[in-house]
Amino acid sequence: MFQITPQAFGLDISDNSLKIALLKKKGRNLSLESFSQIILPPGLVQQGDIVNPDEIANWIKKAITQVEGRRIKTQYVLTSLPEERSFVQVIPLPPMKSQEINNALQWEIEAHIPLKSDEVFLDWQLVEPYNKKAKQIYVLIAATPQNIVTNYVRALDMAGLLPLALEVASISTARSLIEKGKSQNPTAILDLGIDRTAFLLYSGKTLCFTANIPLGSQHLTQAISEKMSVDLNTAENLKTKVGLDEKKGKEILQSCQPILDQIITETQKYISFFQHQCPLDYAPCESVKKVLICGGGAQLFGLSAYLSLGLKIPAELANPWINILKPPLKSVPKLSFTESLGFSTCLGLALGGLELIP
């Protein structure tokens, strides 16, 4: 009898695009089998909320049929939930059995998020303590408003898909970028999207803290457009070709500086908050040693150097393949490294799909 192993692909839904990635196990190695990206018309997804599930379902079908690589035949999918509409936090609880945690969280959750417990879908996982003598247990919770999740489930259902899980985007991003899910020292992640930047802090074996900075790559384009009196397309081309190279375009650097400096200020604030609030029991809390940059906006030339200088912490481009392709590389993925920076969340979902295959 032949046994067919089911597959599950990752689907990253944002305000501006749909991304798909499917990974496959080949012995001890993984390979990227399929991927695609489709730009969405404005208004279908607004600040992470699917306004029109019917239309999004049609776009999901289109993205599946237009994948590069192998045709996707599976119905199983892992999908991201919007970071800006969700809450991720580590909370302490008294020692108790796993089956008691659900009830305890119903009492605790309203003290940690600005929503009632009956208004959200909640998931949690125990955090392996950094301090083995910890007197409390720690639980990583992820909560998203029920109306948001309902629209995602409806869109997936209308697209003919079976969701194995829906998880907050930051969890998927961390799965993609943190090698083997463990960071010896606190690591910050900046995911630069089109209209916002997600801040993540990972330490030990857990995501510790997330926040959103309402500034992204389109704000840089707008700033260039206004300062240089050019249209948005011209500004985008200048940003892409010149970047933050002062020798090639001093005006472009000057245009971007106020936006980037705001991102630096917010990042410093969140790092400071973590270092003062994080209990030593569940994660190493010494100073952040490294900042990883991902997202479509990470492709900006000179960004790593600028952030390193401003934050006074080494900042570098993240590696979305670190848990997928093991050195020495035996094959080069069709998705280039530059493009893959924008696929960090999607690749994390695809990795999760391998773990959750029924």
Question: Helices and strands in order, then pairings?
Answer:
Layout: E1 8-13, E2 17-26, E3 29-39, E4 45-46, E5 49-50, H1 53-65, E6 68-69, E7 76-81, E8 87-93, H2 98-112, E9 120-126, E10 137-145, H3 146-158, E11 162-168, H4 169-177, E12 183-192, E13 197-204, E14 206-213, H5 217-228, H6 232-242, H7 250-277, E15 290-294, H8 303-311, E16 315-317, H9 337-340, H10 344-355
Parallel strand pairs: 1-7, 7-11, 12-15, 15-16
Antiparallel strand pairs: 1-2, 2-3, 3-6, 4-5, 8-10, 9-10, 12-13, 13-14
Binned strand content:
25-35%
Strand order in the largest sheet:
6-3-2-1-7-11
| CATH-level-2 architecture of the largest domain | 2-Layer Sandwich
Q: What is the straight-line distance between the termini?
A: 19 Å
CATH class of the largest domain: Alpha Beta
| Bulk shape | globular
> What is the succession of H and E elements?
EEEEEHEEEHEEHEHEEEHHHEHEHH
User: Mean pLDDT, as a whole number?
Assistant: 91
Spans with pLDDT under 50 lasting ≥5 residues?
none
Q: What is the CATH T-level topology of the largest domain?
A: Nucleotidyltransferase, domain 5
Gyration radius from CA atoms, angstroms: 21 Å
Number of helices: 10
Main sheet overview: 6 strands, mixed
Give the proportion of residues in helices: 25-40%
Corresponding CATH superfamily of the largest domain: ATPase, nucleotide binding domain
Strands, total number: 16
